[in-house]
Amino acid sequence: MRISLTDLVDIVSKSGSPKATKVAQIKLRPDYQPAIDFYKQFRDGIIGIHKAAGARTELAKIISKVNEKNRIANYPAAIAGYKKWWGTKSLEWFQPPSKIFSRSGVDVSINPELGLRINGEPYLIKLYLKGEKLSKVRADLIVGLMDNALSDPAGPVTMSVLDVRSSKLFVSSGASASFLPMVEAELAYVATLWASI
Asked: How confident is the model at residue 177 (pLDDT cuts 50, 70, 90)?
Protein backbone atom coordinates (compact mmCIF):
# COMPACT_ATOMS: atom_id res chain seq x y z
CA MET A 1 0.00 0.00 0.00
CA ARG A 2 1.19 3.52 -0.76
CA ILE A 3 0.31 6.82 0.90
CA SER A 4 1.63 10.33 0.43
CA LEU A 5 3.73 12.28 2.91
CA THR A 6 0.74 14.60 3.37
CA ASP A 7 -1.45 11.55 4.18
CA LEU A 8 1.03 10.42 6.83
CA VAL A 9 1.17 13.87 8.42
CA ASP A 10 -2.65 13.97 8.52
CA ILE A 11 -2.74 10.55 10.20
CA VAL A 12 -0.04 11.37 12.76
CA SER A 13 -1.74 14.62 13.74
CA LYS A 14 -4.92 12.81 14.81
CA SER A 15 -5.62 10.47 17.71
CA GLY A 16 -8.29 7.97 18.69
CA SER A 17 -11.22 7.39 16.34
CA PRO A 18 -10.41 10.41 14.07
CA LYS A 19 -7.07 8.70 13.31
CA ALA A 20 -8.84 5.48 12.29
CA THR A 21 -11.35 7.50 10.24
CA LYS A 22 -8.51 9.25 8.38
CA VAL A 23 -6.87 5.90 7.51
CA ALA A 24 -10.23 4.60 6.20
CA GLN A 25 -10.76 7.77 4.13
CA ILE A 26 -7.33 7.36 2.54
CA LYS A 27 -7.88 3.70 1.74
CA LEU A 28 -11.37 4.20 0.30
CA ARG A 29 -10.81 7.37 -1.73
CA PRO A 30 -10.79 7.13 -5.52
CA ASP A 31 -7.49 6.80 -7.39
CA TYR A 32 -5.61 10.04 -7.99
CA GLN A 33 -6.95 12.12 -10.86
CA PRO A 34 -5.14 15.33 -11.86
CA ALA A 35 -8.45 17.02 -12.71
CA ILE A 36 -9.60 16.89 -9.07
CA ASP A 37 -6.21 17.80 -7.53
CA PHE A 38 -7.22 21.23 -6.21
CA TYR A 39 -3.73 22.80 -6.17
CA LYS A 40 -2.21 21.02 -9.18
CA GLN A 41 -2.44 24.10 -11.42
CA PHE A 42 -0.82 26.21 -8.70
CA ARG A 43 2.05 23.77 -8.16
CA ASP A 44 2.55 23.29 -11.90
CA GLY A 45 2.55 27.07 -12.38
CA ILE A 46 5.23 27.62 -9.71
CA ILE A 47 7.38 24.79 -11.10
CA GLY A 48 7.01 26.09 -14.65
CA ILE A 49 8.08 29.60 -13.66
CA HIS A 50 11.20 28.34 -11.87
CA LYS A 51 12.15 25.85 -14.58
CA ALA A 52 12.03 28.68 -17.13
CA ALA A 53 13.99 31.00 -14.79
CA GLY A 54 10.96 33.28 -14.81
CA ALA A 55 10.40 36.43 -12.82
CA ARG A 56 8.38 36.84 -9.64
CA THR A 57 5.88 38.99 -11.58
CA GLU A 58 4.85 35.90 -13.59
CA LEU A 59 3.09 34.46 -10.53
CA ALA A 60 0.04 36.56 -11.43
CA LYS A 61 -0.37 34.53 -14.65
CA ILE A 62 -1.17 31.36 -12.66
CA ILE A 63 -4.68 32.60 -11.87
CA SER A 64 -5.35 33.42 -15.53
CA LYS A 65 -5.23 29.70 -16.38
CA VAL A 66 -7.78 28.78 -13.70
CA ASN A 67 -11.48 28.63 -14.50
CA GLU A 68 -13.01 26.72 -11.58
CA LYS A 69 -14.84 28.95 -9.07
CA ASN A 70 -13.32 27.55 -5.84
CA ARG A 71 -9.81 27.72 -7.26
CA ILE A 72 -10.35 31.29 -8.43
CA ALA A 73 -11.39 32.10 -4.84
CA ASN A 74 -8.47 30.28 -3.15
CA TYR A 75 -5.47 30.67 -5.46
CA PRO A 76 -4.90 34.44 -4.92
CA ALA A 77 -4.02 33.91 -1.22
CA ALA A 78 -1.55 31.17 -2.15
CA ILE A 79 -0.04 33.28 -4.92
CA ALA A 80 0.30 36.28 -2.60
CA GLY A 81 1.94 34.14 0.08
CA TYR A 82 4.42 32.64 -2.37
CA LYS A 83 5.19 36.05 -3.86
CA LYS A 84 5.89 37.47 -0.40
CA TRP A 85 8.16 34.53 0.46
CA TRP A 86 10.06 34.90 -2.84
CA GLY A 87 10.69 38.59 -2.11
CA THR A 88 14.13 39.59 -3.41
CA LYS A 89 15.67 36.11 -3.18
CA SER A 90 17.63 34.73 -6.10
CA LEU A 91 15.94 31.39 -6.95
CA GLU A 92 17.52 28.88 -9.35
CA TRP A 93 15.75 25.62 -10.25
CA PHE A 94 17.17 22.12 -10.02
CA GLN A 95 15.22 18.87 -10.37
CA PRO A 96 14.17 17.63 -6.92
CA PRO A 97 14.61 13.91 -6.21
CA SER A 98 11.82 11.70 -4.88
CA LYS A 99 12.02 8.50 -2.88
CA ILE A 100 9.83 5.95 -1.15
CA PHE A 101 10.12 5.50 2.63
CA SER A 102 8.90 1.99 3.52
CA ARG A 103 8.05 0.43 6.88
CA SER A 104 5.59 -2.30 7.89
CA GLY A 105 4.51 -2.81 4.28
CA VAL A 106 3.48 0.84 3.90
CA ASP A 107 5.21 2.95 1.25
CA VAL A 108 5.28 6.71 1.84
CA SER A 109 6.02 8.89 -1.21
CA ILE A 110 8.55 11.57 -0.33
CA ASN A 111 8.42 14.03 -3.23
CA PRO A 112 9.23 17.69 -2.63
CA GLU A 113 7.86 19.84 -5.43
CA LEU A 114 10.76 22.27 -5.62
CA GLY A 115 14.51 22.04 -5.88
CA LEU A 116 15.78 25.61 -5.57
CA ARG A 117 19.12 27.24 -4.99
CA ILE A 118 18.14 30.11 -2.71
CA ASN A 119 20.82 32.77 -2.99
CA GLY A 120 23.15 29.98 -4.13
CA GLU A 121 22.30 27.44 -1.39
CA PRO A 122 20.41 24.24 -2.39
CA TYR A 123 17.01 23.57 -0.79
CA LEU A 124 14.42 20.85 -1.33
CA ILE A 125 11.01 22.35 -0.64
CA LYS A 126 7.69 20.65 0.05
CA LEU A 127 4.78 23.04 -0.52
CA TYR A 128 2.12 23.16 2.22
CA LEU A 129 -1.06 24.67 0.78
CA LYS A 130 -3.78 23.98 3.36
CA GLY A 131 -5.73 26.86 4.89
CA GLU A 132 -4.76 26.04 8.48
CA LYS A 133 -1.29 27.16 9.54
CA LEU A 134 1.43 24.56 9.51
CA SER A 135 2.40 23.64 13.07
CA LYS A 136 6.04 23.12 14.03
CA VAL A 137 5.29 19.48 14.92
CA ARG A 138 3.93 18.77 11.44
CA ALA A 139 6.76 20.70 9.79
CA ASP A 140 9.36 18.78 11.82
CA LEU A 141 7.79 15.48 10.74
CA ILE A 142 7.87 16.47 7.06
CA VAL A 143 11.46 17.72 7.05
CA GLY A 144 12.55 14.82 9.27
CA LEU A 145 11.26 12.27 6.77
CA MET A 146 12.74 14.24 3.89
CA ASP A 147 16.09 14.25 5.74
CA ASN A 148 15.90 10.50 6.24
CA ALA A 149 14.88 9.65 2.67
CA LEU A 150 16.56 12.32 0.55
CA SER A 151 19.85 13.30 2.21
CA ASP A 152 22.63 13.25 -0.35
CA PRO A 153 26.10 12.15 0.75
CA ALA A 154 27.49 13.98 -2.30
CA GLY A 155 26.62 17.34 -0.80
CA PRO A 156 24.47 19.11 1.77
CA VAL A 157 20.95 20.13 0.82
CA THR A 158 18.58 21.86 3.25
CA MET A 159 15.27 20.03 3.62
CA SER A 160 12.32 22.35 4.12
CA VAL A 161 8.58 22.84 3.92
CA LEU A 162 6.99 26.12 2.90
CA ASP A 163 3.70 27.16 4.48
CA VAL A 164 2.73 29.01 1.31
CA ARG A 165 -0.13 31.13 2.65
CA SER A 166 1.86 32.43 5.61
CA SER A 167 5.11 32.74 3.60
CA LYS A 168 7.01 30.77 6.26
CA LEU A 169 9.80 28.32 5.41
CA PHE A 170 10.50 25.62 8.01
CA VAL A 171 13.95 24.07 7.66
CA SER A 172 15.43 20.86 8.96
CA SER A 173 16.95 20.94 12.42
CA GLY A 174 18.89 17.74 11.67
CA ALA A 175 17.09 15.78 14.41
CA SER A 176 15.30 13.36 12.05
CA ALA A 177 16.55 10.21 13.79
CA SER A 178 14.38 11.00 16.84
CA PHE A 179 11.26 10.87 14.66
CA LEU A 180 11.89 7.44 13.20
CA PRO A 181 10.53 5.28 16.06
CA MET A 182 7.32 7.35 16.15
CA VAL A 183 6.91 7.16 12.36
CA GLU A 184 7.56 3.41 12.38
CA ALA A 185 4.91 2.93 15.08
CA GLU A 186 2.40 5.02 13.09
CA LEU A 187 3.04 3.01 9.92
CA ALA A 188 2.63 -0.27 11.81
CA TYR A 189 -0.74 1.06 13.04
CA VAL A 190 -1.72 2.05 9.48
CA ALA A 191 -0.77 -1.40 8.14
CA THR A 192 -2.79 -3.20 10.82
CA LEU A 193 -5.87 -1.01 10.39
CA TRP A 194 -5.64 -1.01 6.57
CA ALA A 195 -5.97 -4.79 6.50
CA SER A 196 -9.23 -4.66 8.46
CA ILE A 197 -10.97 -1.96 6.38
From this structure: low
